[in-house]
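Predict the holo structure. Ligand: acetyl coenzyme *A.
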Amino acid sequence: MAAEGIVLDTDGLVLKPGTKLQVAQRVTADGQSHFHRAEIMSTRVGKSGRPEYYVHFIDYNKRLDEWVDVDRMDLSTVELKAEAGDKSGSAAAAAAAAAALTKKTPVTKKRRREREPRSRGRPPKVTTPVESDEISRPSSVLSSASDAVSTTTSVSSLPAALSKTQEIEKLRRGGSMTQRLEEVARVKNIDCIEMGAHVIRTWYFSPYPQEICGTTGDSTIFLCEFCLSYFGARSGLRRHRQKCTVHHPPGAEIYRSGAHSFWELDGHRQKAYCRNLCLLSKLFLDHKTLFYDVDPFLFYVLTENDTKGCHLIGYFSKEKESADGYNVACILTLPQHQRKGYGKYLIDFSYELTKREGKVGSPEKPLSDLGLLSYRSYWSEKLVALFMEQMQANEGNGETERRFAVSIDQLSKMTGFTCEDILHTLQAMDALRYKRGQHVIVLGEKHLADFEKNKRKTNRLKIDPKALQWTPPVFTTAQLRFL
Ligand code: ACO
Ligand code: ZN
């Protein structure tokens, strides 16, 4: 990509890949912009003929990487990349990175997940609201949780108690996922995609062929919204649309409710579409690299339907056989449809499938920052709604006490969530208490207020289990041989 380092006028200052300096981040909605330390990843000559620099804001998610010109840089803060031979600072890091890139990582088979111990002990109780004077609150919820809930499930892997804000900040700043070094070095290759009625700014690199995305990183590519074929020019897409007769994803429509459908696709059988879907989703997902290896996965594609066809909203993929008990490999809502409740709708659907399989499941780790936020929010909302339902049912039965007994294991069976995810969620919600020698799940005023607030939200779509026409697919050993 473009020239290696561009000499800047008077001082002969060379800004080349590896140089670090303060760069103004994009102006936010409130009109504020501030400087943050960034590293130059690549350079090019922009359309105006002026040099442009692709910068990564250090400690921030790669989603924020962008092309900037020199006007946004504070040149008095330039830290030049140390030259070869100098093993200190960034040169040493670069050397280490280069060494890591050339080292081959042995491929190991995934170990089968150890089964979680089944619940045998006294179930924790759910009560509401908090009766603070009655409750002897342990100094650390974590340590007290481990002795009393231990009969239900292992809690030794609960995370150190970071506050929710700290955790989100850590994820937001620390990059979304485990990033492969070679991927970190990748400069975004496409600026925008045009798809149906939408023009969408991309977030990350995706390995579309260079012939269609060029080498400058500022191109727009054009996608057929129904078959996801891609073109470097609008005229190419127009010609394709005259011939393309597809109006919905291939595969079986296994769910329809109102204007929404879910389609089940087999990566082996509907290979072309699944590969196109992976290429598209990589633009917004930062940790998946095996785009062409779609055979081991099933894809569940969500569409919104109108007279023109079934328009892609999002999808999740799922391993045909997951040794780790994952029920979702990758999940995506296209950016133009985000924050409208579709993420939770997709997650809800994934658990509906899992329950139909008679299993429990968890999303593949690590989660992205947005993935974690969505799952946390989904799990806690579902659990609180379930507790409230149970208590309302009890009240209907004439019981005066707003409490009921349930084990984590029972909760797991009712929801399809793993015991571990339930415990993590309850802990993050600060809803676990130790009372009179046993553990209780306590809903405080805040939980109840959130529950009421969520009920009023207009973007809540619910999966209707009756609309799911599906039996879990079974694969023979021969069919799974590619795994
Ligand atoms: N900022 C703050 N909170 C957010 C944001 C955000 N940008 N996005 C989602 N959330 C939280 C909110 O709590 C929200 O609930 P609320 O609206 O009640 O407050 C909740 O997540 C879910 O919101 P939805 O509208 O249901 O989810 P959305 O349709 O936006 O999809 C998703 C969420 C799929 C994670 C989307 O952000 C996405 O596609 N991101 C890019 C790809 C990605 O990171 N996928 C997850 C990778 S991990 C894995 O694949 C297993
Ligand atoms: Zn098409």
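The pocket of acetyl coenzyme *A (ligand 1) is lined by residues 284-285, 328, 330-333, 338-344, 363-364, 367-368, 370-371, 373-374, 377 (CB under 6 Å). Residues 85-123, 125-160, 168-185 have pLDDT under 50 and may be disordered.
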